[in-house]
Target: HTH araC/xylS-type domain-containing protein
Amino acid sequence: MNLDLRFINHGQEACSPNHQCGPDINEQYKIYYIHHGQGSLHSSGNSYALGPGHGFLIYPHQEATYKADESIPWTYSWIVFEGNDADDLLTRAYLSKEHPIFFAPVNSWFNTFAAQFDQTLAKENSMELASCSILYRFFSELLELSTSSVSTFKPKERYVQKAIEFIHDNYQHKIFIAEIAHIVGIDRMYLTSLFKEILNTSPQHYLHQFRMDKSIELMQNRALSISEIAHAVGYKDPLFFSKMFKKHWGICPSAYRNKKVKKV
Model:
């Protein structure tokens, strides 16, 4: 299997009390794993109290703030990566902007991945290949972890996860919430109530947010016109797409590209 997945960097830090990162926005995916200590994460309007064995994910272009505890500050490792297949792999691991947390026991493989990346630095002739190998191992462990824990999902969470997977696979097409509910096998109103209960958002808003995030990713490719990007994320009318983009991001697509995207 050839995956578009690239290692960028990694690190480990023993944070001082109340050490805070953010609010900031990254250009790549970033996963943290907490070895010991405590802290908190604030992202996508939600707050999480985290401790040893917890991991958390920050998506590209997602604003997030994370802070070490005052009494027992955390020590964590992180890995930064990018690639077109990253989002699908994270979805398979039941991770998303709305569900950015996973748990792996502190005696698990995740406790050692930073040290393994450190060892690749000594491999002058094969450092890139060795780093890629560990990144693949990281995702393999993450998927195995999600597979072993998926049986603990409540029925409500399974319905929502199935709806999310459908959205991720079909966002470029015209989608009706009733269609998603039919695929999932429940009533449209019930699906909406589950999204609000579990994700604190509606299916329609989740779809809109996902399309807006994808449009930002596609905007990096200057070979694509605004009209092509609009069609690629499910908007057949480029003018309507531009209106929704500006309403969501506070800037029109062409202005965003001129301001944010580097010219080659």
